[in-house]
Amino acid sequence: MTNEENLSSPAERSLARHDVPDLLRDDVRHLGGLLGRVLEESGGPELLADVERVRELTIRAHDLAGAEGTRALQEAEAVVEGLTLERAEEIARAFTCYFHLANLAEEHHRVRVLRDRQASAMTEDDSLSEAFAQLESELGREEALRRVQALEFRPVLTAHPTEARRRAVSGTIRRISDLLEQRDNDHTGGTTGAENDRALLAEIDTLWRTSLIRAHKPTVLDEVQSALAVVESTMFETFPRVYRRLDDFLLGDDAGRVEPLARPFVSLGSWIGGDRDGNPNVTADVTRAAAALAAEHALTQLGRAATVAAKTLTLHEQSTPASAALLQLRQRQGQLDADLSNEAETESPGEPHRAALLFVAARVGATQARNADLQYAEPEELEADLKVIQESLVDSGASRAAYGALQQLLWQVRTFGFHLAELEVRQHSQVHAAALADIEAHGIHGELEDSTREVLDTYRAIGAIQQRYGVRAARRYIVSFTQAPEHLAAVYTLAEYAFGDGDAPIIDAVPLFETFDDLENSVDILEAMMTNPVVQRRLEENGRRIEVMLGYSDSSKDVGPVAATLALHSAQARIAQWAERHGIALTLFHGRGGALGRGGGPANRAVLAQPAGSVDGRFKLTEQGEVILARYGEPTIAERHIEEVAAATLLQSAPSVEKHNTEATERFASLAARLDATSRARFHELVQAEGFPQWFAQVTPLEELGLLPIGSRPAKRGLSVNSLDDLRAIPWVFSWSQARINLAGWYGLGTALAECGDVELLRQAYAEWPLFSTLLDNIEMSLAKTDELLASRYLALGDRDDLAELVLEEMRLTREWVLKVTGSEYPLAQRRVLGRAVQLRAPYVDALSLIQVRVLSVLRREGQDIDPEEQAALRKVLLLTVNGVSAGLQNTG
Fold first, then answer.
1. Would you call 620 a catalytic residue per the annotation?
2. Rg of the chain taking only CA atoms, in angstroms
3. Which residues lie closer than 8 Å to 373 by C-beta, 6 or more apart?
4. Which of 96, 173, 615, 641 is most buried per CB count within 10 Å?
5. Which candidate in 30, 62, 108, 160 is catalytic?
6. Do 554 and 684 belong together in one domain?
7. Catalytic residue among 100, 487, 557, 569
C-alpha cells in the first residue's frame, strides 16, 4: 500500500513523481506501510497479498495504454470475480482505509505549507490584504475601508447523503493527524520515533477494526451534532482569527491598541434541522431541538471564552481605575446577585474589570441554564456589558487589554450570538399550496391534514426560537420551486393562520429559483413580490434588503451543466439589475454543492466570475456533505478558505473586475448562445430518450444508494425512478460519480465545442472570459475523475447499447476538446497539485469500482431471487465501496 507514484501514463507518473513534495511522499509511504502491517497482523500474509495483487493489477491497467491497458484491467476484473464476498469486503475496507490515510496526509501537508508561509510572512495573491490593497488603489482608502466594513460572507451548512463517513471514523482520523503533527514537531528519531509509530499503529488498527459504515441511517439530530462538532472545534476560534489578521493589516503598528477597523463579516447559517423539503424526518419538534442544540454549543463556548478573557484582566485598580460606567455595571451586578458579585470580587481583589467579566461569564452560564433571574435576554445585552468593560479599559489607558482577548470575545458574540448558526427553514411551494387549500376547505379550526398541521407548527417553532434566542436565530424561510408570486405570498398567509391575532414571528420569504424556466421567470416573480404589503413592510424595517436563492443542481439536471451555468449567470445579471432599479440591497444565495455537477469547484474563482452588481460585497452559499469537513475541519485550512472567499467577494465589485467581466460577457455573447443551444440539445437527446430513467437506475447504484444508511434524507421526493423530475439532484450527481462517469458535470460540452470548431476563438474565450474559464476548469477536474474503461463496465449493466455509446462518445469528445482549448496534455496537467492528488488515487479507486461493479452485476442479474442473507452481505460490500470511492474522489455529491 505504499507505491503512490504509479499513475495513469508514464508521462503523468514522471510529472507526479517530480511534483510530490518529499515530506508528503514520506508521510504517505509511512502511513501506507503501517497500514500494511496492520492488515498482515489482522488477516495474515494472505490478506496483504490479495490486497497487493489487486493494487498492482489496477496500477498496471493505468500504466498501460490501449489494448494492453484493457487486458490488464480484464485481468484485475477476473481476480475480483474470483474473490469470496468476505475477501472482497476486506479488500474494500483496506483501500478505503488507505484513502482516509492519504487524504489526511495531504491535508496535513497543506497545513504544513500554509503555516510555513505564515511564518515567513508570505502574502497570498488571493488574501484579504491583497484584495484591500487593490480596492484602495482603484477607489481610495476611505471607500475601500467602507467596503471592507460592509463585507458579508454567509456559509450555510447543509446535510446531504454525500458524507458517507462516520463520526467515529472522523475521530480516529483526527487523532492520526495529531500524531503526524507530533512527528513533525519532534523531528522523530530513536525512541521518540518508535513511540510515535506505536501510537500510529494503534490508531490505524482502530481505523481498520472500526466499522466504516453506519448500522442505521443517521437521524436529523445526528447530522446536527456532526455539524456542530465542526463549528465548536474550529469555527468558533477561526472566524475571529481571520478578523484579527485583517485588522493587523489595516492598522499596522496601531493594531491592538486602537479600536479595530475590522468588523465581523462571517455569519453562519444552517439548514440541518430546518430543511424539510423532501425530508419527512424534519418536523417542528426537530427544528426546535436543533435550535436548542446549537444554542447550547454557543453559550458553552461564549461562557468558556468569557472566563478565559477574564483571567487576562488582572489589571489593578491603582494602575487601571474603573470608569463610572463600569462602577455602575458592578452595582447592577450586585443587585442581580450579591453573593455571585462578592465571589467575583473575592476572586479579583482590586481588579474591577476582571470581577465584572467573571460576573458576565456567570450570567452567560445562567442564560444557558435558563435562570430567569440572572440570564441575558438577548446577545445585545451581553455585548453592551462587554463594551462597558472595554471602554473603561480604554479610558484608563489599558487599550491593549481592551482590544486583546476581550475584543475576540466581542467578535464571537457578534458572529455567533446565542444561536451559533441561523437556522433556515426550507419547504416546497406545493406543500404550502396544499396546506392553504386544506385550510380554505375546512377552516383553520377544522379537521386538517397532518401535513397542514405540521406546516403551521413549523411557524410556531420559528416563533418560539425567536423568543428564546433572538430574531437572528431563525427568520429566513426558503421556498423551493418558487414558480409564481403566490408561492411567496403563501409564506406570510400561513404565518397569519398559525398565529391568528397573535404576534407572528419576523419572517423573510426567500424565493429559490431552481429549474431553467424558473430562472428565466425570476425577475417577473420578484417584481410581483414587491406588491405584497408584508414584503413592503419588511423592506422598510431592514434597510431594503432582499435575498434570492439560486439552485445549481436542479437547473443542471434540467438542461445540462453548460446551459445551466449560462442560465444562472444570465439570471444573476438580470436580478442584480432589477434590484438596482428598486434600490434594493440584494444578496444572492448560491445553492452550490461540493460536486462539480452541483456548481462545486473553487468558490473564490466562482465569485470572481459573477456578473457585475450581483455580489456587491455579499456572498452566501451552501456548504454541504463532505465539503464541511474538507473546508472547515482543520483550523488552518478553514482560515485560508474564509480569507480566499472573503477576498474574492471584496474584489468582485472592484471597477476593474466588473469592467472585465461585463466586457467579456458582451464580447462572447454569440459564443455563449451557441454553446447553450447545442449543449442543451445534446443533453436532452440523452435524458429525454425513451426509457432513460430506468436505464440510469440500472447502470448506476442509484436505487441501492436510497437504501443505504448515508443520510437522513430520502433519495427521491416520493416518485418512482420512472421520472427524473422528482429525483433529488444530489443522488443524480452522486450516482454518476460512483459509476466513474461524472456525467452531471460535463455532458453536452464536447458537442458544443466541436460544433463551434474555432479553436482560436475558444482559446481566446478561455483566456479572457472568466465564466468560461471557470466552467472549463471545473469540467476538466470532473473529467480527471472519470475513467472510460470503468465507465463502460457500469454502462454494460444496462440493456441499452445506444445510450451507452452516446455517453462514451460524448465523454471522448468532451475530453478531446477541453484539452484542445486549455492546451493541456491530459486533464489537470497544468494544475499540478490538484492533478497529482487525483492521479495518485485513480488506480486505488479503480479497485473499489471493480468490486462495486461485481456486486451491482449480481444484484441486477439475480434481483429479488437472491437469498436475503446474501443480499444483505452484497449491500454491505456495496456501501463499503461507496464509502471508499467517495473518499478517493473526495467531491462526489
1. no
2. 28
3. 336, 337, 366
4. 96
5. 160
6. no
7. 557
Q: State the cell numbers at 261.
A: 477597523
Nearest to 299 by CA among 226, 243, 374: 374
The set of cell numbers assigned to 792 is: 463502460
Mean pLDDT score, 775-804? 93
Nearest-10 Cα torsion for 628, 632, 634, 640? 140
Q: How far apart are CA 481 and CA 494, in angstroms?
A: 17
Half-sphere exposure of residue 736: CA atoms within 13 angstroms, side-chain side: 24
Q: Residue 250's pLDDT is what?
A: 96
CB atoms within 10 A of CB 714: 16
Listed residues 830, 849, 873: the one ending a domain: 830
Task: Tell me: do 574 and 659 sit in the same domain.
Answer: no
Active site residue 820: no
Residue reference for cell 425577475: 523
The residue behind cell 432582499 is 546
Q: Can you give the pLDDT at residue 716?
A: 53
Structural domain includes residue 792: yes
Distance CA 92, CA 81 (A): 14
The whole domain housing 564 covers 422-597
562 close to 775: Cβ distance less than 8 angstroms: yes
Same domain, 477 and 556: yes
Per-residue pLDDT tens over the stretch 600-624: 456 788 899 999 999 999 999 998 8
Pull the grid cell for residue 766. Answer: 478561455
Pair (529, 662) in one structural domain: no
pTM higher than 0.85:
yes
pLDDT in tens, 184-193: 887 655 558 8
Cα separation, 858 vs 877, in Å, equals 12
pLDDT at 718 over 80: no
Q: Euclidean distance between the first and final Cα of the chain, in Å?
A: 27
pLDDT in tens, 339-382: 999 999 999 999 999 999 999 999 999 999 999 999 999 999 99
Q: Does residue 587 share a domain with residue 685?
A: no
User: What is d(CA 99, CA 840) in angstroms, rounded to the nearest whole number?
Assistant: 10
120: exposed, middle or buried (C-beta count within 10 Å: 0-12, 13-18, 19+)? Answer: exposed
Distances (CA, A) of 705 to 637, 716, 738: 31, 11, 10
d(CA 572, CA 519): 9
The kind and range of the H/E element at 153 are strand 152-158
Q: Which amino acid is at 709?
A: P
714: left (phi over 0), alpha (psi -120 to 50) or beta: beta
Does 723 share its domain with 589? no
Q: Which of 309, 332, 339, 321 is nearest to 384 (CA)?
A: 332
Res. 304 pLDDT band, cuts 50 70 90:
very high
What are the tens digits of pLDDT across the range 13-55?
Answer: 333 444 678 888 889 999 999 999 999 999 999 999 999 999 8
Which DSSP string corresponds to 167-213?
HHHHHHHHHHHHHHHHHHHHT--HHHHHHHHHHHHHHHHHHHHS-SS
